[in-house]
Design goal:
With about 180 residues, the chain is α+β, with helices and mostly antiparallel strands. Helices cover about 35% and strands about 35% of the residues. It has a single domain, classed as Nuclear Transport Factor 2, Chain: A (Roll). The longest helix has 24 residues. It starts with a helix and ends in a 6-residue tail after the last helix.
């Protein structure tokens, strides 16, 4: 267990450095909140995005994302276009009874925002997860509701007050462990 936790922590630290290093180099680093040009407006847009998810307001995505926006969950194919982003979000939210986002930190530099957040969600009983190739069982169906928490580090690129790209790195190991798909020996 310690090796897995250490690996997850090391992975998270490496991803944080890779994503945040450009902000540190440009000098946009301070206490807990990192601010530079356009910071307030762009951070506000990103916070609205997470609040819309918490409130299950998928229609808000049409105002927050550019029509041809790209959402890239690292390790998966990118989702292209606000309509596809909304469709995917609706699918995810249909599996949850609740979701809440805790803001951990934001870094802003011009039209780029880095967000570190923690999600706590309750997955519905009967919800199904399609596992990645090679993981058994290939389909996991939850027999009862499961409360899950995980951290996310995401980089947002904005243009004219809308998200044009979101790159998401989330702690999928934590999710898989908590829903029972992945067990440690």
């Amino acid at each position: 267990m310690e090796k897995i936790n250490y690996a997850i922590s090391s992975y998270s630290l490496i991803m944080l450095l890779v994503i945040a290093l450009p902000f540190v180099i440009t000098g946009c680093f301070g206490e807990n909140k990192i601010v530079c040009a356009n910071k307030d407006d762009n951070i506000t847009v990103v916070k609205k995005y997470f609040r819309a998810i918490d409130n299950r307001d998928t229609n808000a995505m049409n105002d927050l994302f550019a029509i041809d926006a790209i959402q890239d969950f690292v390790g998966n194919d990118p989702i292209i276009g606000v309509k596809a982003i909304v469709t995917k979000l609706e699918l995810v939210l249909s599996q949850l009874t609740s979701i809440k986002t805790e803001f951990v930190n934001f870094i802003a530099n011009g039209d780029t925002v880095f967000a570190h957040v923690k999600h706590v969600a309750v997955f519905k009983a009967g919800g199904a997860f399609l596992n990645r190739t090679g993981i058994n069982p290939p389909l996991m169906v939850l027999k009862e509701p499961v409360k899950v928490s995980w951290q996310v580090m995401a980089t947002f690129q904005l243009k004219d007050g809308r998200i044009v790209e979101e790159i998401i790195v989330r702690d999928e190991l934590a999710i898989l462990q908590q829903i029972g798909t992945l067990t440690l020996k």
